[in-house]
Every structure is written in structure tokens, then in C-alpha cells.
Amino acid sequence: MLLAAAQLKPADNDFASNLQQHLRYCEAAAAKGAQLILFPEMSLTGYVLETVAAQAIAPGDPKLEPLQKLAVYRGITIIAGAPVQNENSLHIGSFIFQPDGQTTFYTKQFLHGRESDFFTGSNAHNPLLLTGKQRIANAICADITHAEHPEAAQLLKPTIYAASIFYTPGGIGEAYEQLAHYARTYRMHVLMANYCGASYTYEAAGRSACWNAEGELIAALDETTEGLLLAECG
What we know:
This protein is α/β, with parallel strands linked by helices and 234 residues long. 24% of the residues lie in helices and 32% in strands.
């Protein structure tokens, strides 16, 4: 199975522009034969905490339809980050668009810093994705800093751990060590998508990557360039 991770710099508070960028990356990944593409944390809106309520997207919102239609048309699973409004709770989440027409979402379980002023962490929405022979578990950013997150994911017996993040240069080295350790310990591929360039009030670290089930780094992008990472899994 060919995996893809999109490394990009989303436009803050500009869903329309980010959506078009996502569609271009999805088309490019599908043209290369990828069956799954992973985007970074809150990639559809940008990581802007103060305006997040106005940017929140509810499950079933019609503006998500282009991604769902493309997933079906191209036969590719798309994992795209967004603030998710679910009933009375606001979450950092990932919308998951599948080739069979289903749309589900994952919610970030462990919040970081000021995120708790705006969002609610939750493990109530943690779907296992089935794509071909692969079983995919999701994580968002600070989830990966808690060892109990991948440990709990093992109850789902995943073959791929997909981490959508927004990491700065000061933290990306540790993230590499943690993700390689999880891959090696739990015998699963790990796919990670990160921002690049300046965004919100931070400088992003880039270096989106993939590790095999031995914990070996098999593909990585650089620190600053937007692009598409491709890696074979099994």
C-alpha cells in the first residue's frame, strides 16, 4: 500500500484556499497510486486558536463534500485536520473521507498549552480505518507525547499509526525518537504529516516522515519545503 503525507503551510482562517490546496495534493497523491493521504493538524483552517469557533466544522457540513467526492472518485482515503464542532463540544479533530463514501472523524485526546482554553479533549471518537489489508489508527500532535496513546491504540491492532502534527524545530527531534520507538515497539508503520514555514505564532519544523515496523526511517521531507511524501507500506 502506498501512503502519502502532505507537508504544507495552511492559510490562517481561509478554508476555501486550504480546501483547494488539499484537493490538489489529493489528486497528486492519487495519480502516484497512493491509497491514503494524511494532512497535518487543523490543516483545513490553519492553527489559529483565537478564531477557532468561527472556523469550526460540524460533521456533515456540505463544504466538506468536495473531499468526500474526490475520495470516492479517486479511491483514496483522506485524513484532513480541522476544528470539529460536535454537538456542544469543540475538538481538534481529523475528518476521514473514505472511498466507500463514509465520512468519520477522530478527536484529539491530549491537549497542549492554551488549547484547553478553546477545545475539549476526547477519546470518544477514535475509529479504526480499514483500507485494503491495512488497519489505521489516528493521532493528533500532543497525543504522541503520551505513551498510553499508542499503547491503547494496540487494542485495535493497527498496522499503521497516522500522526497529524504541528511541531516546531525545538520539538521535532523528540517526535522522531518517539515515533520510531512506537513503530519498533508495536510493529507498525508510522506516518507523520507536519506543517512547514511560519504559521500562527510559531515556526514549523517540517520533516514529515514515515517509519517501517522495525522503527527505521524510510522516507522524509526537509524542514522548509511544501511537498508530498510517498512511502510504501507492506
